[in-house]
What does this fold into?
Amino acid sequence: MNTEQIWKEHPTLEVVYVTSDETAFYNENDAKNHAKGLENKSVEPVYNPAHLAVDAKLVEGNDEPELSDFTKAQLIQFAKDNQLEVNDKANKPEILASIQTQMEAKNQADENGSDASGGSNPQE
It folds into this structure.
C-alpha cells in the first residue's frame, strides 16, 4: 500500500514507518520487527504532507508562521529542511527547544563570521 492511499484512509495520521521492502506500518516497533527479516533493515518515517502544510492564512497574510504553532511532524520536517539534528522520538516541546537552540547558534556563528572578516572581501 502506498502512503498516498494511507493518508486518504487515515487523514489524521501524522507518520508511518516504511521498511526497505516498501511495507508501511503505523507503529515504528512493528516496522523494525518486520525489517529484522529483510536484508536491508532500514526503517524510514514518512510524514503526512497534510500535517506539514503551512496554514494558508499565514501565507496570504505574509506573516511568518511561528515554530510553536507547528505540529511535531512539521517541526521534524523543518529541522531536516534546515539541516538541524533532532530526536524524532522526543516530545514536541523538546524538539522545539532543540531547533531554537540550534537556530540561535547558527545565527550567532553567521554574525560572528561576518564581523570577523570586517566586511571586506579578501580577494579584492
